[in-house]
From TrEMBL:
<dbReference type="Pfam" id="PF00570">
    <property type="entry name" value="HRDC"/>
</dbReference>
<dbReference type="GO" id="GO:0016787">
    <property type="term" value="F:hydrolase activity"/>
</dbReference>
<dbReference type="GO" id="GO:0046872">
    <property type="term" value="F:metal ion binding"/>
</dbReference>
<dbReference type="GO" id="GO:0006260">
    <property type="term" value="P:DNA replication"/>
</dbReference>
<dbReference type="InterPro" id="IPR036388">
    <property type="entry name" value="WH-like_DNA-bd_sf"/>
</dbReference>
<keyword id="KW-0233">DNA recombination</keyword>
<dbReference type="InterPro" id="IPR002121">
    <property type="entry name" value="HRDC_dom"/>
</dbReference>
<dbReference type="InterPro" id="IPR010997">
    <property type="entry name" value="HRDC-like_sf"/>
</dbReference>
<dbReference type="Pfam" id="PF00270">
    <property type="entry name" value="DEAD"/>
</dbReference>
<dbReference type="GO" id="GO:0043138">
    <property type="term" value="F:3'-5' DNA helicase activity"/>
</dbReference>
<dbReference type="InterPro" id="IPR027417">
    <property type="entry name" value="P-loop_NTPase"/>
</dbReference>
<dbReference type="InterPro" id="IPR014001">
    <property type="entry name" value="Helicase_ATP-bd"/>
</dbReference>
<dbReference type="GO" id="GO:0006281">
    <property type="term" value="P:DNA repair"/>
</dbReference>
<dbReference type="GO" id="GO:0009378">
    <property type="term" value="F:four-way junction helicase activity"/>
</dbReference>
<feature type="domain" description="HRDC">
    <location>
        <begin position="520"/>
        <end position="596"/>
    </location>
</feature>
<dbReference type="GO" id="GO:0005524">
    <property type="term" value="F:ATP binding"/>
</dbReference>
<comment type="similarity">
    <text>Belongs to the helicase family. RecQ subfamily.</text>
</comment>
């Protein structure tokens, strides 16, 4: 069994990405396995390829109904028969699909978890020859996950009782070590069958902008990347509508997506984005789960997400084709208060709320850190032996460092003198020496650190405390009323054993125009002609353009300039079926361009 040959023939790729082959081999041996791979890391190949080789059908359980149609269309496009059954399928269509599956003509069946616990459906499912059960977005099974769905746990026991002892494969892109351990226990995956490829996205540049005029920044950025696909995330529907109107009023073709729109409008906006009829969409986090569009060049967060898991999952929707992409977070502390409000109003128990508060604290540290942003994220997910990425906004920040040791000692000393029993707001006001603190019944005015920063504003001192917290000199007690605590690192500073350096005067940068796709290594004019040809086929077949060929494949064509079938097959992303369908037209376009 030559897995590489199947990879090339069916999917058009010459080599496996990290972790793919190991997972596929375990699946082919009938084992239970789990893959922890970043968004865009090629998780779907790990069950799609085995499905073409195994007898019977591969059952793919996914909580993302919006993704099922995309994946099924993509598979059918490369000649792999697949279908889905979920709540969007009408009963007469469902009956027809079920008969088709029973005939053995389908290799992959995508279902929503709710279907598994339906007695009638499960009875039908039990009669099928199932060789592999793949669970996508597996983190939803863990109570420690950022998107936990208790109802999904109910499907595990019925799946384990299916006849035939099929192989199992669980996949996720955002799982801390705690979540990984929980999933391994729930799914009974042995430790040696857990494949982690690392969470780093080498083509993704993370960037944080603090204190900018958000609306103006968004407009400038979008206009400077007008021919590139991008997603703008905002926290509230009201924000989505305002940004959408603002961009529209400034002649930007833009879409929007949130739960307040009708099903029909949401569907139309999503389709317009997938089919490249619009390049930009403004959305709440309701958008994007399952969006498989490969040529998104940037994700811009107008509002900070509530967890690092959500942030990294959302930015992971940029650059899925492996080409350079950017993720920009526009940060203001006020955004954190919105999340705190939602946590307070949550119907969850105290333990659940505490978990959310702790996650919010971590994302606030991320927003304030001056260390490498990618390394911060990787450390959060348990990858502690990483080096700075060299491409995020912090790594590229060339401002001079200033010695902040004395200021740090003043803050830490104040926290200690206040017995580490108060939160940031009270500590800040004591340091600045506010009158209401001087007249307080706790007599803070008697502290030697009271008013030690009386010549500074509350905002300046608050930022200093945020910096010290983000960089590990202070830590939070967590809970509903978090207090500031001095860490071991902070203690070393207090004792004079460590110095602190800080970059001052956070600057506002002007976004400079640049293309995230064209890098000078190929002819941009040919790339645009191939994009136009791809769009023509996409319209004819009613498919999003990226399902015909990804931008990466078109770029490779523009570099290799294939003029015959053999050369066309050597292009990354071109397999046997794609050659038969599109080879003559694309080869002809390339020849015409060369002769012009």
């Amino acid at each position: 069994m030559n897995l590489e040959a199947t990879l090339k023939e069916k999917f058009g790729y010459d080599t496996f990405r990290p972790g793919q082959k190991e997972l596929i081999q375990k699946v082919m041996d009938g084992q239970k396995a789990m893959g922890i791979m970043p968004t865009g890391g090629g998780k779907s190949i790990c069950y799609q390829l085995p499905a073409t080789l195994l007898p019977g059908v591969t059952l793919v359980v996914s909580p993302l109904i919006s993704l099922m149609k995309d994946q099924v269309d993509s598979l059918n496009e490369v000649g792999i028969p697949a279908t889905f059954l979920n709540s969007t399928v009408e009963w007469h269509d469902r009956e027809e699909r079920m008969r088709y599956i029973e005939s053995g003509a389908v290799k992959l069946l995508f279902v929503a978890p709710e279907k598994i616990v339906d007695d009638e459906f499960y009875s039908w499912l039990s009669a099928l020859d199932i060789s592999l059960i793949a669970i996508d977005e597996a983190h939803v099974l863990s109570s420690w996950g950022h998107d936990f769905r208790n109802s999904y746990l109910k499907m595990i026991e019925p799946l384990q009782q299916l006849p035939g002892e099929p192989a199992w494969l669980a996949l996720t892109a955002t799982a801390t070590e705690q979540v990984q351990d929980d999933l391994a226990s729930i799914l009974q995956v042995p430790a040696q069958n857990i494949i982690k490829t690392g969470f780093e996205r080498n083509n993704l540049a993370l960037k944080i902008e603090r204190g900018v005029d958000k609306s103006e920044y968004v407009l400038n950025y979008v206009k400077n990347h007008i021919d590139e696909s991008g997603i703008i995330y905002a926290g509230r529907r009201e924000d989505v509508d305002n940004i959408y109107k603002f961009l529209n009023d400034n002649d930007v073709k833009v879409g929007r997506y949130h739960a307040g729109l009708s099903d029909q409008e949401r569907h139309q906006q999503q389709e317009d984005f997938l089919f490249d009829r619009i390049n930009v969409i403004v959305a709440t986090n309701a958008f994007g789960m399952g969006i498989n569009k490969t040529n998104v060049r940037y994700v811009l967060h107008f509002t900070i997400p509530g967890t690092i898991e959500s942030y990294y999952q959302e930015v992971g929707r940029a650059g899925r084709d492996g080409l350079p992409a950017e993720a920009i977070l526009l940060y203001t502390p006020a955004d954190l208060r919105l999340h705190q409000f939602f946590i307070d109003k949550s119907q969850g128990d105290d333990q659940y709320k505490l978990s959310l508060r702790n996650k919010l604290f971590e994302i606030s540290r991320f927003a304030q850190t001056q260390a490498c942003l990618m390394k911060f994220v990787l450390d959060y997910f348990g990858e502690t032996n990483t080096t700075p990425c060299g491409r995020c906004s912090n790594c590229l920040d060339d401002r001079e460092l200033t010695d902040a040791t004395a200021d740090t000692q003043k803050v830490l000393s104040c926290v200690v003198r206040m017995n580490q029993r108060y939160g940031k707001k009270v500590v800040t006001r004591v340091l600045v020496g506010k009158d209401n603190m001087a007249n307080d019944w706790r007599h803070f005015e008697k502290l030697s650190t009271f008013g030690i920063f009386k010549d500074r504003t509350l905002k300046d001192v608050s930022r200093l405390i945020d910096f010290l917290t983000a960089n590990g000199f202070l830590k939070s007690s967590g809970g509903e009323y978090p207090t500031l605590l001095v860490s071991k690192k902070g203690l070393a500073v207090l004792k004079g054993k460590m110095n602190v350096a800080r970059k001052q005067d956070l600057r506002q940068e002007t976004v400079k125009p640049k293309s995230m796709v064209a890098d000078g290594s190929f002819d941009v004019d040919l790339f645009e002609k191939l994009r136009a040809l791809r769009l023509k086929f996409a319209k004819q077949q009613g498919l999003p353009p990226f399902m015909i060929f990804s931008d990466r494949t078109l770029k490779d064509m523009s570099v290799k300039l294939p003029t015959n079938d053999q050369e066309f097959l050597a292009v990354s992303g071109v397999g046997k079926v794609k050659l038969e369908q599109y080879g003559p037209d694309f080869i002809g376009e390339i020849k015409d361009f060369q002769e012009a």
